[in-house]
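re the bet — no i am not wrong, look at it urself. input seq straight from the record:
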Amino acid sequence: MLELAVLALLSESPMHGYELRKRLNTVLGTFHRFSYGSLYPCLRKLAAESYVTADDSTAAGRLGGRSRVVYTLTAEGKERLATLLGEGGPSSWEDEMFGVRFAFFGKTDAAVRLRILEGRRGRLEERREKVRSALTRTRERFDSYTLELQRHGLESVEREVRWLTELIETERAETGRTQPPPTAVSAGLPPDLPAAPQSIGPPGAQEEP
């Protein structure tokens, strides 16, 4: 999750660690609060794998008289980012990972976005049914406050399912609008097939020679 976020942000511009941490907290703070303790091991790992370079010798890396390492995405890092963005399997549907993936949907292929949204909705629909079933079975065991808490959780899941349904419909509509009109070749017809003549007169009437 952190690897994807770091590579995606560095694809926009090189950054030093402090700036990168601020951007992570700004973009992903709603979903996850990152710390230096997790960020710098991740950056060292990415540098060791040649996905980023670390340079503290440039003027851009010196702020306030202190040398700061500037991290830049490499060509290998761009390929790695493309691979991560292309993944849309079950791990992308989970609570924490979905938030990170959604934050970078602008860099994600439309088909992958749709697959993640549909997978996330399916996962929440399963959760919704489990909560409903649990409420039905154990209603008598809960006091009024516990029941209200359970209902609140159920309403939150239902609200997100509705939100996801709207997003899915929008994605499908956008995909349909961006599809090019069918050509003769894509329709399986010869490209030089002439247009069918238009008949004149009532149906069944034959044209005089």
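see?? The first strand starts at residue 15 and ends at 16. told u. also Strands lie at 15-16, 52-55, 62-63, 66-67, 70-73. so pay up
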